[in-house]
Amino acid sequence: MSKHIALGVDIGGSGIKAAPVNLKTGAFTEDRYRVATPQPATPDAVGSAVAKVVSKFSPSKKTPIGITFPGVVQHGVVKFAPNMDQSWIGVNIDDVMRDYIGRFVHTLNDADAAGYGEFLYGAAHGRDGVVFLATLGTGIGSAVIVDGEVVPNTELGHLIIDGRDAEEYAAESARERHDLDWDEWSGHLQKYFSEVERLIWPDLIIVGGGVSKAHENFLPKLALRSPIVPAELLNGAGIVGAAAGAAHFRDREQLKEKAEAKKAKAAAKREAKKNSN
């Protein structure tokens, strides 16, 4: 794979998908490969499945590998994973994946990855300021990107509105579960996104999830301060964002290493000059 390619892996509750991504365009360079998420979805079982989808593409040692996870990942450690086996809690997912894949990977929350993908290549391409993405599905995933940097693990799908978790009445599953028509559901979304606007004042709101394909049925009904638009990358957003996130993390770490090496060299030079006097 060329230096402009990274591999993205998207771990979901039902499937694990991967594809190499052209970092210049955000497009897949090969067809996506998918395997079923093992049940129970324990660290060892998922690690083995991820290794299988990665090996499908034979990435070079220099190819960044990014992985999404459906839960809170803080400094590589899983803190919350509602749709995965609870044996994940407290486990360093980066270490698990390194053991199975045989190399370093960068892991991030699935909604964060989708938001980053939309910022770089999709609905928020070229936008500065605060971008908020909500994925409306079984629950509500959220991502906040500020001037191109992801604020990790925001979990704003769990805002309490009218005494209830927003997911309970504003997620796509709630529309189906309560048999709401588009007007009724739009009223719930209005309350949710108005609360988001009150808290973080986004410059742009993006709506993702499968229901975003039917955006004309509900987005025009919302009266918000911020522009609100449908996501563009759809089901590929997680893979694309994971790949780009891994490349960004690699580049940032390399810059830090160069800065530290330069600092050490300067210190050594000062010490040598001091000893020569």
How is this structure best described in words?
With 277 residues, the chain is α/β, with parallel strands linked by helices. The chain folds into 2 domains: 5-112 and 236-261, Nucleotidyltransferase, domain 5 (2-Layer Sandwich); 125-231, ATPase, nucleotide binding domain (Nucleotidyltransferase, domain 5, 2-Layer Sandwich), CATH 3.30.420.40. It has 7 helices and 14 strands. The protein has helices at 43-55, 93-101, 110-121, 167-170, 172-177, 182-200, 237-276; strands spanning 5-11, 15-22, 33-36, 65-69, 72-74, 77-80, 106-109, 130-136, 140-146, 149-151, 160-161, 164-165, 204-208, 228-230. The strands form 4 sheets. Strands 3-2-1-4-7 form a 5-stranded mixed sheet, sandwiched between helices. It has a 5-stranded mixed sheet with strand order 10-9-8-13-14, covered by helices on one side. A hairpin with a 2-residue loop joins β11 and β12. α1 (43-55) crosses α2 and α3 (110-121) crosses α7. The termini are far apart.
Give the end-to-end Cα distance, rounded to a whole number of Å: 52 Å
Number of domains: 2
Low-confidence stretches: none
Helix content: 25-40%
Taken as a percent bin, the fraction of beta residues is 15-25%
What is the C-level CATH assignment of the largest domain? Alpha Beta
Q: Tell me which CATH architecture of the largest domain applies here.
A: 2-Layer Sandwich
SSE run: EEEHEEEHEHEEEEEHHHEEH
Largest sheet: 5 strands, mixed
- The helix/strand class is alpha/beta
Per the principal axes of the C-alpha atoms, what is the gross shape? globular
Specify the number of helices. Answer: 7
According to CATH, the homologous superfamily of the largest domain is ATPase, nucleotide binding domain
Strand order of the largest sheet: 3-2-1-4-7
Q: Predict the CATH topology of the largest domain.
A: Nucleotidyltransferase, domain 5
Question: Quick check: average pLDDT?
Answer: 93
